[in-house]
């Protein structure tokens, strides 16, 4: 009599095989489904590495730029200091220009003053009691003598020239002066105003003082009363120089 085979064992064996096959199929299916995502993860990791590399490069650039920026800032500060120094120098230069202009004006004023000369005519005589008068005719024809001495501009308004000393009794001295002689010819005369009965003919000595020194003018002997005797002609040049004729 034949024995019946166990169906439960066969059924269990087939069920296990089906289970394993189903699991393998599911695994393969999941693998196929997840494989693109895995590839994406790999690509993302590579991208992250690339970005991290770029980030490090950017950090290096930022660091270099920061160093350069600090250098530029320092240079800018130096430039600002230099500009401040230049501004100060410019201000000093302007002040020096003003001072130079003032000096030039003063120099020109000095040259103008040097172009003029003062004149002082001193006439002397030694004879007793006699009265001798000094006459000066300036470049404009104005006559200075005892009647028109022009002290305090009494006779020639605007003229500072004057017969400042007038002696009436000898021995005596007479002085004519001007602080600024204009260019032209000045004539110097002596006049024996009063002999007072004395026989002696007086001799007059005349000196001329001016910017560059003094000169003795020729002596003159006066023999006739109330007669003008020319002592000298004085030429004043534009530069203040003196020529005696």
From TrEMBL:
Source species, domain of life: Bacteria
Positions in coiled-coil regions: 48-106
Chain ranges passing through the membrane: 12-35
KW Coiled coil (keyword) present: yes
Keywords: Coiled coil, Membrane, Transmembrane, Transmembrane helix
Protein name as it appears in the record: DUF2135 domain-containing protein
Species of provenance: Candidatus Venteria ishoeyi
Lineage: Bacteria, Pseudomonadati, Pseudomonadota, Gammaproteobacteria, Thiotrichales
